[in-house]
Specification:
The structure is a single chain. The chain is of the alpha/beta class. The chain folds into two domains: 5-180 and 357-408, Glycogen Phosphorylase B (Rossmann fold); 185-354, Glycogen Phosphorylase B (Rossmann fold), CATH 3.40.50. Helix content is 48%, strand content 14%. The protein is built from 18 helices and 13 strands. The strands form two sheets. A seven-stranded parallel beta sheet has the order 3-2-1-4-5-6-7, sandwiched between helices. Strand 11, helix 11 and strand 12 form a beta-alpha-beta unit. Helix 4 runs antiparallel to helix 5 (136-147) and helix 5 (136-147) packs across helix 17. It is globular. The termini are far apart.
Length: 409
């Protein structure tokens, strides 16, 4: 049997301590390693001090260049069975090169979340206009989905948008949420109890605009009311890449603390009583809530925050868009131990029934194996994808080649 080789092309080197996207990528790496793939992770970005160390993962690392034909030589020599693009911008940059040099490689797009959906919601919130999904960004992202053999979608709500509003064939999409370990009674028994926890918390990567907006909401709308009712309680804001505009929001007299990066998100959330996240826009599913549920920390968020995360189950706290009611719910949950424990139990149900990796990984492996066996037939059924892969409409390819020639001179 020939070797199974996977090439992952990263937008950045994964940082699981910085963002849910980094955690998601490592979960995918582990899933493919469990299926005996030889993995090469390639990236054009520079590494940071927080980039994941693949040393213990049996993953090869390779630095690549943007708009450079050296990638063609690299990918042709590697000859991967499967190529995974980390977000649509990476598929735009390298997809045509992969198709040119390795036409038989299965091409998979990991969307992380739908960027056009997040962007349209952000514009709608900031400009107070109706959401327009049919943007230029949507055209780019949808084109990328159509060019690939399969796209991994993390949210059921996004699956519905793609199939119903954009009429994308379901055979091109695969629902794959966060892949979490089950919360057993033994794990839950070790959680820090209600009496030993203190304060509210928020956590989020500040390179992500929805997180910055959420902290502004907490500072201006939520916390002034909350601290009047709970004067001895603090709010702790955690997050990587906090800029000066974030840091200057700290006010020790108001017990509003900016703590910066958390070395371990789950360990950090485990000591606090409630996660507050009045998220106003965004897409996908939110890793901060998964982290909170995994350590028994209830949360209060909005409909957008909880979107597609709980299905028909009860939230591990409250879902509330009215900010005045949001504040009242936070006070009630903070004071009421029975309510708090009930919310904690709801979080266990959500993780175990909707994110248990045992439910998803084997089916995912089967899906990949089936696609590899039927790749030609699968591609014949995706005629729009064939059109978009045709050289006559590949403007990104020719832009890249033009930049490469310009760089040479």
């Amino acid at each position: 049997m020939s070797e199974k080789k996977l090439l992952i092309i990263g937008l950045v080197w994964p940082e699981p301590t910085s963002s849910a996207a980094g955690t998601r990528m490592i979960q995918l790496v582990d899933a493919f390693l469990s299926d005996n793939y030889q993995i090469t992770f390639a990236c054009a970005a520079s590494k940071s001090d927080f980039s994941f160390d693949f040393t213990g993962k049996n993953v090869l690392e390779h630095e690549i260049k943007l708009n450079d034909s050296s990638f063609n030589l690299f990918v042709k020599h590697l000859n991967p069975t499967l190529v995974l693009f980390d977000r649509f911008m990476i598929e735009e940059q390298y997809g045509w090169r992969v198709e040119q040099e390795c036409p038989d490689a299965l091409r998979i797009l990991d969307t992380e979340d739908l960027h056009f959906l997040r962007n349209s919601r952000e514009q709608s919130t900031k400009k107070n206009v109706q959401i327009d999904l049919f943007s230029d960004l949507a055209k780019r992202e949808i084109a990328s989905i159509l060019r690939c053999d399969l796209s991994l979608i993390i949210s059921e709500a996004e699956m519905k948008i793609l199939t119903q509003q954009f009429k994308i064939d379901g055979s091109l999409l695969y629902y794959l949420p966060f892949l979490e370990n089950e919360i057993t009674p033994e794990i839950a028994a070790d959680w820090i109890p209600f009496e030993q926890r203190a304060d509210f918390a928020f956590i989020g990567n500040f390179l992500h605009e929805p997180n910055w907006n959420t902290v502004q909401m907490l500072k201006t709308r939520i916390w002034p009311s909350l601290r009047k009712k709970l004067p001895d309680v603090s709010l702790h804001i955690y997050g990587s890449y906090a800029s000066q505009k974030v840091l200057q929001l700290e006010n020790k007299n108001e017990k509003f603390f900016i703590k910066g990066r958390a070395d371990d998100a789950r360990e950090t959330l485990a000591k606090h009583k409630i996660l507050l996240a009045p998220i106003q826009f965004g897409a996908g599913v939110k890793g901060k809530f998964i982290d909170a549920m995994q350590v028994g920390t209830p949360s209060i968020t909005t409909q957008i925050g909880a979107e597609a995360m709980k299905g028909e189950l009860e939230w591990n706290g409250f879902v509330e868009d009215d900010l005045d009611i949001f504040t009242d719910k936070a006070i009630g949950l903070y004071r009421d131990k029975a309510l708090w424990i009930s919310a904690q139990h709801n979080g266990i149900q959500i993780i175990n029934k909707r994110y248990n990796s045992l439910y998803f990984i084997e089916d995912f492996k089967i899906k990949i194996a089936e696609l590899l066996l039927q790749l030609m037939a699968h591609r014949r059924n995706n005629f729009f994808g064939q059109i978009l892969n045709h050289q006559a409409v590949q403007h990104t390819k020719y832009m890249s080649l033009w930049i490469e020639e310009k760089n040479k001179r």
